[in-house]
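Same chain as my last thread, 197 residues:
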Amino acid sequence: MPPTDAHPDGDPAAEISLRDRPIDLVDIARALGESSNIERLGGAAIRAWRDDLTLIQESLSYARTILTADVAILSHSGSEATTTGRDVIDDLPGKLTSSPSEEHWSAEDLEDLGDLEVAFDEGLFARTDQLLSAHREMARVDLSSASATAGALTLVEEQLAILTERHAAVDARLQQIRAVIIRRYRQAAAPARDRPA
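reply #2:
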């Protein structure tokens, strides 16, 4: 986060780049709150907020993907009432690796799969660690216990809902920032006679 605009109190812990540490819900709330006065931010500050919010957006997307998979696993485990818990656990790897037929994929899902050719950022795992506490809990759940599975499912769904809400807010702020950057660029590129007085 831009040290001059985002952390006026000079807190050294707050000045550590988001790229270099785990991101938590407090960081996300702070970034959204402090980047809200977009019109007052200078060029360097607005670009720094764009970069930080982009890191947050990527972290939230990754965390939501993991939690969505957890919901699918826990829901599948809970829906297997006709088999024993051990059978559910033994069958799970096969069910997760089996390829669904194309009719299960929407056109949007298939487009997203085509966009997977992006550079992989190894720091993503460290940045999302704090956002995946429910995932760590889910990893310890005894899937053969219906009550433990239901409790873990509730926990994961709650965290997924929170991260989904934050993701939408970050997306909206990034759109606002991009609009301001584009508008300023167009104003700077416009001939002097076309600029507003």
